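fold description:
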Amino acid sequence: MSDTHHPKPPQPRQEQAPPGETRLMTPIPDHGEDSYQGSGRLSGKVALITGGDSGIGRAVAIAFAREGADVLISYLNEHEDAEDTAGWVERAGRKALTVPGDIKDEAHCNALVEKAVGALGRIDILVNNAAFQRTYSSIQDISATEWDETFRTNIYAPFYLSKAAVHHMRPGSSIINTTSIQSRQPSYHLLAYAATKGAISNFTAGLAEMVADKGIRVNAVAPGPIWTPLIPSTMPPEKSQTFGKQTLLGRAGQPAELAGAYVLLASNEGSYMTGAVIPVTGGEIMI
């Protein structure tokens, strides 16, 4: 799909309860279902993707499967979305394993890695993608409980999962974290979320140095405004209507437009990349 055919704001007014469902969005996001074509760059590999049910995670799962990887789809409780994603993986001729549960729990994170290794034979790629986000106009409105939930989902879980995965990973394996332009250009109404994204970028750099001697690469992708269920379910309707308008391209990105960055970092084409952050921001500058 050419850029001129991507939807531009305003989006129809809409609102959902968190964490949101793909089928209730207007327009429906493009995850590459009809466009992504693989070329065997991940043949024989196994990937674990958190938040793999929808949004960026679904686009990455589709792309990885079409590149030859089997995929474990980790998600919270969005069963219908997860099964849809699994269907796309299986139509690509690859194995899909869907595992619900809360990645704030270290035991669940350990179990995810063990299930990938036990059911799919190995783990070569870990994509720490799942995120918790809410919007507030005042710090007084953010409870300590919610602050904790944001950090446990967005930065504790990648730590738990990376720690468990590294134990099983062979040289050439890859950890890919989803950070955000918010890591460098924080919006005050996303205070907790933005703080975790800054932490993820720093975690990426430090972990890359820590595991380099094991032959494991650690990188991150920094999306700008991307049209996923997180937007209508966590932002006021008036903000979701104009979401993405401020970018140089004048629109929100589609999940499919990030898949190539994750494939690059997971594949041999990214073999000399570690500790890097790839911005996919529609032209918003990562200062």
About this structure: The radius of gyration is 17 Å. The chain has eight helices and seven strands. The chain has a mean pLDDT of 95.
